[in-house]
Amino acid sequence: MEQVGQRKIDGMWLTVVGFAVLFFLILPTLIVIPISFGGGDFLEFPPNSFSLRWYESYFSSIEWMSATKISLIVAVMTTAIATPLGALCAYGLHCSTPRIRNTAQAFVIMPLVVPVILTAVGVFSLYAKLGLNYTLTGIVIAHTAIALPFVIVTVMSGLQNYDFDQELAARSLGASRAFALWTITVPQVKFSIQTGAFLAFVTSLDEVVISMLVSGGENATITRRMFNSMRDHLDPTIAAISTCLIAVSIGALICVRFLGSRGEVNE
Amino acid sequence: MSIHESNGSPQSLKNASKIKFEERRESLTFLGLSLPAILAILIVVFLPIIWLSSLSFYNAAGELSMENYARIYESALYRRTFVVTFQISIAVTLICVLLGYPLCYWLTKLPDRTASILMIFVLVPFWTSILVRTYAWLVLLQRNGIINSSLMSLGIIDEPLQLAHNLTGSIIGMVHVMLPFLVLPLYATMRSIDTDLVRAAVGLGSSPREAFWRVFFPMSRPGLFAGIVLVFILSLGFYVTPALMGGGRVQMLAQRIESTITIYSNWGAASALGVVLLLLALVMIWLMHRVFGLDKLFMR
User: Is A72 an interface residue toward B (CB < 8 Å)?
Assistant: First the structure.
C-alpha cells in the first residue's frame, strides 16, 4: 500500500515538472506573438489593445524589407546549391568503401560541432583576402558550407533504409548508372532529400554569427539587422518580424514531420 | 585473392586485374560525386580555421613565438574569460540535465501518441531562430517585464529583480536554447529502453525507486552522456545569447574572440583563444564519438 502511494506521489511530481519544463520551452513563442499584435506605443504584455501597427512598421520599412529580401534570396540560393551537392555527396559516400565513408562522414559532420564563432572569424578573414565580405556570393557560399552537413546526414540516413539492390537490378536490366540513380533511387529517398532541403533553408535563414561578420551594407541579412537592433533597445517591430520567422519555422517543421511520416509509410 | 590461387591461368589473372581496375575506378567516381560538397566544407570551414590557428604562433613582429599563448595564461582578463565560460557552461549543462531528464522520463511513460504531440513543445523552440527566443526572453525578463510583475503581484518580491542584462539572464536564455540538444538524444535513448525490464525488477522484489536507479538509469546513460557533451561543447563556444543577454557584463570566450578581432584587431591573440576553444571542443567530440557515435545526434 505504502509503495502504491509513493508511486502516485512520484508520478504527480513528474507530471508537474514535465509540464513546467514544457511551459518554459514554449513560453517565449507564446509571448512574442501577442506582443506583435499590440496597439500601444511601447512594448507591452499583455497588450491593452490590438493592432497591426508593428507589422505595418515592418512591411513599410525599406531597411527591414531589403534585409528580408536578402535573407530570403540567400536562403533560397543556399538550399538550391546545398541540396543537390549534399545529396550527391551522400550517395557517393554511401556507395564507397566503409573506410572512405567513415572518414569522410566524420569530416563532413565536423562543421556542426566546430564553434560557429571560429567558422565565422575564419570565413571573415578568408573573404577579406578575396574581397567577398558584404557580398551576396560570399554569404551564399558560407551558408552553403554550413548547410551541407545537414543535407548529407539526412540523405545518408535515408539511403541506409533504401534497398540498394533495386538500383543494381535496374542496371543489370540495362539502365545506365545515372539513369538508374535518377529514376529508381532518387524517387525513393525523395523525402530525406526534401527534409535536407528544409533544414538547409532554415539553417541559412536563422544563421546569425557568420551573417553578422560577413554580411553588411546593402547586403545585410535580417538576422544581422535584428541582432544590432536588439543590442540597442526592444523594438516591438522585432516581435512582428519574429512572428513571421516563427511561422516559417513551424511551416518547415510541419513539412518535415509530414514528409517523415509519409516516408515511413512508403518503407 | 582466392581466384589467383585456385586458377592461375593468364586469362583469369587479366580478368582479376581488370575487375580490380574497374573497382578502383568506380570508387573514385563515387568519391568524385562527393567531392564538390567536401571541397566546399574544406575551403570555407577548415582551411580558414587552420590558417587562423597558424596565426596564433606568430607575435606582433611576425616572428614565431608562443607569446599569444603565454599571454592567455598570464593575463587576468583572459583567465577570467575562461573561468566564466566554464562556470556558465557547467551551470547551463547541469540545469539542462535537471530539467531535461525528468521531462524525458515523463514523456517515455506517456502513451506514444500523447508523447509525440508533447514533443512539439520541444521541437517548435528548437526550430525557432535563436534571435527570436532571445528577444522573447529579454522582453520577459526586463525590469517591468511579465516575470517581475507577476512575482510582485504574488507578493513574492517587493522590488523588481535584475534578471536581464546580467549572468542570470544569460543562463536562462542559454538553458532555453540548449535544452532541446539534451532532450532529443536522451529521449531517443529512453524510448528504446525495454520498460519490461523495469517491471521485471519490481516483480522480483525491487522497490520502484531502486528499479529506476539500478535498471532504467544505467540504460539511459549513453543518451544522457551524449546530450551533456553536446550541450557543454555548444555552450563553450556560444555567442548570440550571452552577447545580447549579458548586457556587457558577461564575457564568454566567443565574445572575447569576436571583440579581440573587431575592436582590437589583434588576430594573434584571438586565434590563440580560438585554438584553445577548438581543442576543448575536439576533445569533447572525441569523447562523445567514442561513447555514442556522432552521426546519430544531428537529426533535428
Answer: no
Residues 152-181 of A with CB under 8 A from B: 152-154, 156-157
Full domain range(s) for residue A259: 60-266
- Kindly report the CATH number assigned to the domain that includes residue A106: 1.10.3720.10
Chain B segment 122-141 residues within 8 A of A by beta carbon are: 122-125, 127-140
Phi first, then psi, for residue B64 (nearest 5°) are -65, 125
| Percent of chain B with pLDDT strictly greater than 70 | 94
For chain B, what is the mean pLDDT?
Answer: 87
The cell for A243 is 512572428
Residues in B closer than 8 angstroms to A123, CB to CB, are 44-45, 48
pLDDT tens readout for residues B52-66: 899 889 887 778 888
Q: Report the gap between the CA of A33 and the closest CA in chain B (Å).
A: 10
Q: What is the pLDDT of residue A168?
A: 85
**Contact residues for A49 (Cβ-Cβ < 8 A; gap 6+):** A38, A39, A40
CB contact under 8 A, A25 and B100: no
- If pLDDT is split at 50, 70 and 90, which confidence band does B4 have? very low
Domain hosting B182: range is: 68-298
The verdict on B36 and B180 lying in the same domain is no
Instruction: Write down the pTM of the prediction.
Output: 0.87
Q: Are residues B50 and B102 in the same domain?
A: no
Nearest CA in chain A to B285: A113
CB contact under 8 A, B132 and A32: yes
Residues of B in contact with A29 (CB under 8 A): 124-125, 128, 133, 136
Calculate mean pLDDT across residues B242-261.
Answer: 89
> Is position B95 within any domain?
yes
| Interface membership of A139 toward B (CB under 8 Å) | no
Q: What is the pLDDT of residues B63-76, one digit of tens each?
A: 888 888 988 888 88
Cα-Cα-Cα-Cα dihedral sign, residues B262, B268, B271, B273 = negative
Looking at the complex, does the CB of residue A227 fall below 8 Å from at least one CB of chain B? Answer: yes
Complex confidence, ipTM: 0.88
Please report which confidence band the pLDDT of residue B298 belongs to, taking 50, 70 and 90 as the band edges.
very low
Residue with the larger pLDDT of the pair A78 and B199: A78
Instruction: Give me the DSSP letters along A50-94.
Output: B-SHHHHHHHH-HHHHHHHHHHHHHHHHHHHHHHHHHHHHHHHHH
| Residue A104, domain member (yes or no) | yes
- Report how far residue B233's alpha carbon sits from residue B86's, in angstroms, rounded to the nearest whole number: 10
